[in-house]
Design goal:
Shape: elongated
Number of helices: 0
Structural class: mainly beta
Strand content: 25-35%
Helix content: under 10%
Radius of gyration: 20 Å
Length: 171
């Protein structure tokens, strides 16, 4: 079935799954009929049984997930995701504070949080920054260092460009 498994109990329950790469103690230990998963780290992706196309890198990354198409990077990243699909979770302990079945979410943070530093929803699509201060720099004054452009409807207002910490409206 073209599976690669390195580490005690990694891929232990594998029966018909194929193209899985499992590295670390108990990495992907409960995978049975899952395909094309990558689990690297102790207990990474341990609960997943049949979910396909997941990537979990870090100790216990994605350890509670049974979903498909998720990316978990960092120790304990996405530990509270259970059955959601197509999530991207990056950072040590990143993800929601309680059990979640959400799909299509983005969490970039260094702790469990329901308001991550960078969050998003791929299905809407939306992107949220949670910060008290945002700093950017530019090598030249001829280009904006930050540009926010409304591309859907002029009723929502003009675009905004930030040049050297000075906001200007663009037409």
């Amino acid at each position: 079935y073209d599976n690669a498994s390195v580490g005690n109990y990694s891929g232990y329950d594998m029966t018909t799954g194929f193209s899985n790469t499992l590295v670390g103690y108990k990495a992907g230990t409960n995978l049975t009929d899952a395909d094309s998963n990558v689990a690297i780290g102790k207990d990474a992706l341990t609960t997943c049984i049949t979910g396909d196309d997941n990537v979990a890198i870090g100790e216990r990354a994605g350890s509670g997930s049974t979903g498909a198409g998720n990316i978990f990077i960092g120790r304990l990243a996405g530990e509270n995701f259970t059955s959601g699909d197509s999530n991207v979770i990056i950072g040590k302990n990143a993800g929601p504070t309680t059990t979640s079945t959400a799909s299509n979410k983005l969490y970039i943070h260094n702790a469990e949080s329901d308001t991550p530093l960078i969050g998003g929803d791929f299905s809407t699509p939306s992107l949220t920054f949670t910060a008290d201060d945002v700093s950017t720099t530019s090598a030249t004054t001829l280009k904006p260092i930050l540009a926010l452009t409304n591309t859907t409807d002029d009723a929502y207002g003009p675009s905004i460009e930030l040049y050297n910490n000075r906001a200007t409206e663009a037409d």
